[in-house]
């Protein structure tokens, strides 16, 4: 069944709810339905109601606690930033076998950050080992960067939405884009 996008009282998208939760909040008068899924209905013994696609909560906090301007740093997001390719040899690498390589090695104080990590295949990672990149060799093909958002947005939702097709009724409410990252999720 389809999930619903939940907006807070200020109209900011804050969560994705399973349809049962969405219907319950609506039935309890704690949320207002702004859009439904065309042709999708929930049937109970006594009534048939359209399936909510976007709903606005009428209670709860107005602003979500954690806003971010940068895509959260996770293994999955790093893989997607690098297009599923090894940053050293450029070959495609599967999600299950890619490794996170520290450009400036961890053993030499390199941080685990967007700017210091790249996706690497196993052979390239072990060839590089703990050495620092030197001019002309062992250098990533592209400079690692932190994917930024066009606007600050709720952190948990940014991450969740990065990996799903957005239903059409959600589009007007998602006011940010992730810059510099193309392609599909692993
Ligand atoms: Zn490689």
Question: What can you see in these coordinates?
Answer:
The protein is of the alpha+beta class. The protein has 2 domains: 4-66 and 153-173, no CATH class; 74-128, Orthogonal Bundle (DNA Binding (I), subunit A), CATH 1.10.30.50. 16% of the residues lie in helices and 27% in strands. It has 4 helices and 8 strands, in the order ββαβββαββαβα. The protein has a 4-stranded mixed beta sheet with strand order 2-1-4-3. A two-stranded antiparallel sheet has the order 5-8. Strands 6-7 form a two-stranded antiparallel sheet. A hairpin with a 5-residue loop joins β1 and β2. The two termini are 22 Å apart. The mean pLDDT is 90. The protein binds zinc ion (ZN). Zinc ion binds at residues 86, 88-89, 91, 120-121, 123-124.
Biggest sheet architecture: 4 strands, mixed
The portion of residues forming beta strands comes to 25-35%
- Give the averaged pLDDT, no decimals: 90
Bound molecules: zinc ion
- Output the structural class: alpha+beta
Offer a concise description of the structure:
16% of the residues lie in helices and 27% in strands.
């Amino acid at each position: 069944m389809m999930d619903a996008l939940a907006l807070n009282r200020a109209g900011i998208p804050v969560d994705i709810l399973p349809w049962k939760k969405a219907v319950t909040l609506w039935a309890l008068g704690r949320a207002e339905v702004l859009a439904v899924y065309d042709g999708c209905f929930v049937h109970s013994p006594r009534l048939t109601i359209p399936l909510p696609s976007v709903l606005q909560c009428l209670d709860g906090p107005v602003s979500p606690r954690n806003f971010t301007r940068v895509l959260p740093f996770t293994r999955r997001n790093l893989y997607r930033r690098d297009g599923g390719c090894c940053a050293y040899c450029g070959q495609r690498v599967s999600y299950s076998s890619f490794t996170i390589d520290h450009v400036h090695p961890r053993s030499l104080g390199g941080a685990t950050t967007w700017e210091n990590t790249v996706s690497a295949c196993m052979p390239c990672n072990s060839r590089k080992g703990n050495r620092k990149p030197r001019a002309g060799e062992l250098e990533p093909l592209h400079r690692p960067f932190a994917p930024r958002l066009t606007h600050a947005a709720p952190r948990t939702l940014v991450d969740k939405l990065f990996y799903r097709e957005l239903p059409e009724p959600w589009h007007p409410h998602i006011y940010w884009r992730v810059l510099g990252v193309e392609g599909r999720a692993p």
